Each structure stands twice: as C-alpha cells, then as structure tokens.
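I'll show a typical protein example:
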Amino acid sequence: MNMVKSKVIIIMVLFLGIGGVAHGLTVVGSKHDMTKFVSDATTRQVCVFCHTPHGGSADAPLWNHTLSNATYTLYTPPVGSPPLQGAVSQPVGVSKACLSCHDGTVAVNSLMAVPRDGETGKPVFIPSSSPAYVGTDLNNMNPSHPVSITYRPDLDKNLRDNMGRTEVTNGSVTLPLYGGASPYLVECGSCHNVHDASFLPFLRVSSDQLCSVCHLQ
C-alpha cells in the first residue's frame, strides 16, 4: 500500500470516529428536542430552541431561550441534616438557563432570536404535573441537590478536593464546576449533560457513580 492510500485511509478512520462521537452526543429525538415537544412548530432547527450564533445571552454558550424573571425560594437542608458549608445564591449561569424552561414560568419555545426557516409554534409550558417541572421553590426539590452553591472542600471535609480546578475528579469520572473564580459553583450542568441522554435524566454518569465523584461519604 503506497503512502498516499495510507494517508487517505487514516483520514477516513478519523472522520468516522469523530462522526460516531458527534452522533452519540445529540438532543435530536430526545426530550430536549423541542421540535418533537411543540406540535405546531414548523422550524426544523433543533438547536435554535436553546442556542443562537448571534445576539444570545452570556448565561450559557450562545444562549437563545428567554430567561425567567422568577425569584426562587432557595434550598435549605432537611430537618436533622448537617448545615450547608457552601453558600447558596439565586440561580445563575447554566442553572438559570436550565430553569428558564424547567421552572414553568417561560414557554419552552420563547426565544430571543427566532429561526428563519419556520415558526416555533404557540407558547408551550412545562406543566406542573410533568417530571421535568421544577417550579420556583427550589427548597421543594428535597432531596435533590442545591444549585448555585459554592464548592467548599476547605470547609466540608466530606467533599473531594478539587485542587483549585474548575472540575472534580474521581478515577475516570470528572464533573465540571462553574464560575469565574474560586470558590467555584455546583450548577445543574455539574451533574447533567443536556446533550446526552445515555444516563437519564441526562446525567453525566450513571446514578451509582455520580455522588461519589464529589462526596467522600
């Protein structure tokens, strides 16, 4: 086999590999595919319900969905639980972006920049009866995890040390933290990957691995 043919085969293998990865991480056909959720939407752009290349918000990458103006009831530990060592704030960043649909106050098809290839349909809200509904009372999420909470292994010795990095690693599993400076924040995106439905509900890893990435016990 000559050198030119070898290079062509190597390039083809690389492209096939990349294509396989791209296909694995997709919202198409998942519960985050709003073209399936909004019955009268005529646009075929799946990404536009969350993202736009121009004129978006900085709360999440190229964010296009209308943000909620809600004020949230913040998480407090259940009675009898140890006090939180991290500070909990009103949701910011990716958590605010997630809640713009999941708090039920903004239609899932309310966008900042509308697509040009079709309509996004009549307003559709996540109903309070849906498992996807979070609402504005984040304390009602117990026993769920608080969001927009500082990650403080220096104060809570049951937390794995992130060594000042914007991620926490346990073995082969790494979860991201958010924010511009330490102490970084645990957000919705620390545990969830909205583009990958391999571990429902859109978890980054299986539920039996998830907690032990950050929590030592």
In short: The mean pLDDT is 88.
